[in-house]
Design a protein that fits this description.
The complex is a heterodimer of chains A (624) and B (102). Chain A contains 25 helices and 2 strands. By secondary structure, chain A is mainly α. Chain A has a domain of 73 residues. The termini of chain A are far apart. Chain B is elongated. The chains are: A mainly alpha (624), B mainly alpha (102). At the A-B interface, α24 and α25 of A face α1 of B.
Chain lengths: 624, 102
């Protein structure tokens, strides 16, 4: 089990290193095969570890393995260790499973791109970073993985480095994530100060008298989670991150990166339970994000951006679940989301690939007959996203909403209602996309630009989408509360749920949730399918994404530019540059005055010597 | 042994030295400057020898001999320079030699 964990962790790193070191000595395809193979090996090792853990008693499933002492400073000490337990095993399976499928898909998608080797090395590095994050046996290793995920995402979002918008998006993602990294670091410093350790158990050992320490630690962790998972208010990087290649978007959205925040909250649930206000804040942020992202997704016209906002929305559900204490439900939704979101993104990638890079849904239409396989895959992903039985989202989303109801109080009811409203929005925006892109007659643009003479895409792209579509369709049956809940039972030793909905709450929410999703689809059909109603004019607030970008521009970017310009005018130019000019002219003047002493007449020199001697003589005599 | 006291010798030596120095400082002809230089050296020599007599040992006299040897060498170099200047048809005026001015 432990050996499997180590192999899982290092296999992608070895893959990335081999591709990097081999350079041009290996072909472009070979680089792709190495990256795919290394993540597949990691997946197999994770499966082996998982099976080994299945055979153990629940208490023996959590094992910490330390390779060596990594950091030692005074009494503080951290090992390079991995923690294999129920939670990290599930995450390992998701990351390597979905990740390797996405990398295999890239074999076809990136065919003929420049710098394929760099791409595949980055992809393998990304998977390694995420594995380090989920397997790290203490908080400092988790933070290392956390930072490396940020780095890899920066490299991949900015992969098309000749495009200015891609570089800007990469920088934006990195800066936004750095804010979260900083708040996490503050939390860790406090932990070291008050408990002297960064092991996961230290999270529960902060002296209970220090209310503010407990709260700040939880708040710092939440800040990191919010930044990485693109929740309000640090969410603006995620839609821009669509500048990267489509498989990168899939990897960021499905298997790695944005799920890290949910993982962090579940892993550190002790710290959040100690600070109930922060936990409530997580739930509120998740809820607001899921509603806001759902509304924005209604008006976006870029196919990838719509899916990106749906990711924000779905992660909002996971935050809501983790915030009210339904940890297993959040992780289960994370897993199902990984399947159907990867399926949606990769199917969208098939579309974009076949349409020569076009992402604007206004130019698409009538693709159902032209690309039936893509249509079916996209439909499976869309139905799962909207939570229609028997697709996977149905099984995972509604338990989260039911948990909000089970939390009770006006707060719980509010979250519950918002979650259901989000389900309605999900149905609308998902099927707006599907109806516009696939139904109706082929648009002029499609007739002109679609090229499917070699099928709907290379074989490597089709089988991976097929696998994910099947998973999006059937994987939900893994857990069907309240009837069978193996995932919740499996996770119970790591993160026992704080709230357990009654059967009535569960089934009632399930029914309302499905109705909401179906209503959303119906509304989408009436507007975009049958054109019985005209779409209401898109509000400017939604098109401008609630003005968050403008707000940050006004609040941070412009003051920084103003400050820099002012410092330049008030300090740089007069003081720094001025002092250099003054020093130069001063030296030149001093030299000019000194040079006058050099008359060139030997007599004056001799006179100077004689006069000095006379003065010295007088001085000596006088002193005596 | 009788005769003038050491103060007289020293006074003469100082007078010679001062005369020589004034010559070096004030005269323009390099030949005279060289001459005045010799005067200064001999003023110094006189002081050395007087002190040697006064102290009753030979150290000062030996030193005076060394000064004479150096002075001889110096005259050779100095006169050589003056001859070279004359050959180049330069004006024999030390104030004209001012190319070292900064």
């Amino acid at each position: 089990m432990i050996a499997g964990g180590w192999i899982t962790l290092f296999s992608p790193l070895v893959g990335a290193a081999v591709i990097t070191l081999a350079g041009t000595r290996i072909g472009r395809r070979t680089a792709g095969y190495i990256a795919t193979a290394s993540t597949m090996i990691a997946f197999v090792a994770a499966v082996v570890a998982f099976v080994a853990a299945l055979g153990k008693s629940p208490d023996a499933r959590s094992q910490l393995s330390t390779a060596y002492t990594w950091i030692q400073a005074g009494s503080y000490q951290s090992g390079f260790s991995i923690l294999i337990d129920q939670l990290s095993l599930l995450m390992m399976l998701i990351v390597t499973g979905v990740g390797s499928l996405i990398i295999a898909y890239s074999l076809g998608y990136m065919e003929g791109e420049d710098e394929e080797r760099r791409y595949f090395a980055y992809m393998a590095l990304f998977v390694f970073s995420m594995l380090l994050l989920v397997e790290g046996g203490n908080l400092i290793l988790l933070l290392a993985g956390w930072g490396m995920v940020g780095l890899s995402s920066y490299l991949l979002i900015g992969f098309y480095h000749r495009r200015a918008s891609a570089v800007a998006a990469a920088k934006k993602a990195f800066v936004m994530n750095a804010v979260g990294d900083a708040t996490m670091a503050i939390a860790f410093f406090l932990l070291i100060k008050y408990t002297g350790s960064l092991s996961f158990s230290a999270l529960g050992q902060v002296p209970a008298g220090n209310r503010w320490v407990v709260n700040i630690v939880a708040l710092g962790l939440l800040g990191g989670a919010v930044a990485k998972s693109a929740q309000l208010p640090l969410h603006t990087w995620l839609p821009d991150a669509m500048e990267g290649p489509t498989p990168v978007s899939a990897l960021i959205h499905a298997a790695t990166m944005v799920t890290a925040g949910v993982y962090l909250i579940v892993r550190c649930n002790v710290a959040f339970q100690a600070a109930p206000h922060v936990e409530n804040l997580a739930a509120v942020l998740g809820t607001v994000t899921l509603l806001m992202a759902g509304l924005i997704a209604l008006v976006q016209v870029d196919i990838k951006r719509v899916i990106a906002y749906s990711t924000m929305s779905q992660i909002g559900y996971m935050f809501l679940g983790a915030g009210v204490g339904a940890y297993a439900d959040a992780i289960f939704h994370l897993m199902m989301h990984a399947f159907f979101k990867a399926c949606l993104f990769l199917a969208a990638g098939l579309l974009i690939h076949a349409l020569g890079g076009e992402q604007d849904i206004r130019k698409m239409g009538g693709l159902r007959k032209l690309m039936p396989f893509t249509y079916l895959a996209f439909l499976a992903g869309g139905l799962a996203l909207a939570g229609i039985p028997p697709f996977s989202g149905f099984f995972s989303k509604d338990p989260i909403i039911a948990s909000a109801l089970a939390r009770g109080g006006w707060f719980g009811y509010l979250l519950w209602a918002a979650g259901l409203a989000g389900a309605l929005l999900t149905g609308i925006y998902t099927f707006r996309l599907i109806f516009r892109v696939f139904l109706g007659e082929p648009s002029a643009f499609v007739r002109e630009h679609l090229h499917t003479e070699h099928g709907e895409g290379p074989i490597s792209m089709r089988w991976t989408v097929g696998v994910l579509a099947v998973l999006a369709t059937v994987a939900g049956f893994l857990q069907f509360p309240p009837f069978w809940e193996p995932v919740s039972k499996w996770l119970e030793p790591v993160a026992p749920p704080l709230v357990v909905p009654t059967n009535a709450q569960e089934i009632g929410t399930l029914l309302i949730g499905v109705t909401m999703g179906a209503t959303g689809i119906l509304i989408a059909w009436l507007i975009y399918g049958s054109h019985r109603f005209r779409a209401p004019a898109a509000s400017e607030v939604l098109e401008e994404k609630f003005f968050f970008d403008d707000l940050y521009d006004a609040a941070f970017y412009r003051p920084a530019v103003w400050l820099a310009a002012m410092l330049r005018r008030a300090f740089e130019e007069p003081v720094v540059q001025g002092s250099i000019v003054e020093v130069a002219t001063g030296t030149r003047d001093a030299a000019r005055w000194t040079a006058r002493l050099q008359t060139g007449l030997v007599r004056t020199y001799v006179f100077a010597i004689a006069a000095s001697l006379a003065v010295l003589l007088v001085v000596f005599v006088a002193v005596r | 042994m009788s005769g003038p006291g050491i103060a007289w010798y020293l006074a003469l030596s100082a007078f010679l030295f001062a005369t020589g120095m004034l010559g070096v400082l004030l005269r323009r002809s390099p030949l005279i400057v060289l001459l005045s230089l010799e005067l200064m050296l001999n003023g110094a020599n006189l002081a050395l020898i007087s002190f040697a007599r006064h102290a009753g040992n030979l150290d000062g006299q030996v030193f005076a001999l060394a000064v004479m040897a150096v002075a001889a060498a110096e005259v050779v170099v100095g006169l050589g320079l003056i001859v070279a200047m004359a050959r180049k048809k330069l004006t024999l005026d030390v104030d004209k030699l001012s190319i070292l001015r900064g």
